[in-house]
Each structure stands twice: as C-alpha cells, then as structure tokens.
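Example 3.2
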Amino acid sequence: MRAIYIILMLLMLVFAAVQYNDPDGLMWMVIYAVPAVWAAIAAFKRTWLANNVAHWCLLVCIFLSIVGVVYYWPESQGWWRQEIWWEVETAREGMGMMIIAIVLSVVWQGRRSQLR
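Structure, written as tokens:
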C-alpha cells in the first residue's frame, strides 16, 4: 500500500503544480495539497491515522471533497471526453474534485487495514 500512497501523493502534487497559471490557481493548489498530505501521512506516518483527531479530520476532508464533487459537477455534455475537458475548465475542476474524493477514500479504506 505504501507504493500506492506515494504514487497518489505525487499525482496530487503534480496536479497542484500545474495550477500555477490558473486564475484561481492558489485555491486549487491548496485543494490538491490536502489529499497529497493525507497520502503522505498514510505512506510515511501511518500510526498518525490511529489518532482520534486525525480520524475525524480525515472524515471531514472526505465529506468536504464530496461536497466539492457536487458543487463542481461538470454541466457539459460528455464532460468525460477529452475534447470537452481539454477545453472546458469547469469539466476539469469537476473531474479534479472526483479524483480528490477517490484519493481520500483510498486513504480511508487503507487506514483500517494498516492499523491492524
């Protein structure tokens, strides 16, 4: 699992890095940094996830990511097709929130097996 968490962490950091030229790039850098930090904790400091405060903080992050998915859900028809998301920023933002929710869910699921 450690390798998966490291890959997810690096992926989120790359997503954060490519936001440099976006008008709201700083906000998205922070948004992508959150799952990167959780993946790093799962990879390198997994005992921290046993902490009750960390447990609730992770749950709050997952909840907020789901709220983000609902808020940023792409309204474009066929938003999953490359020709759409390549041109439509709202489709990319929606897909980004979906990826964030998936990464946080992987950390949540993995924390249970790691703490045994």
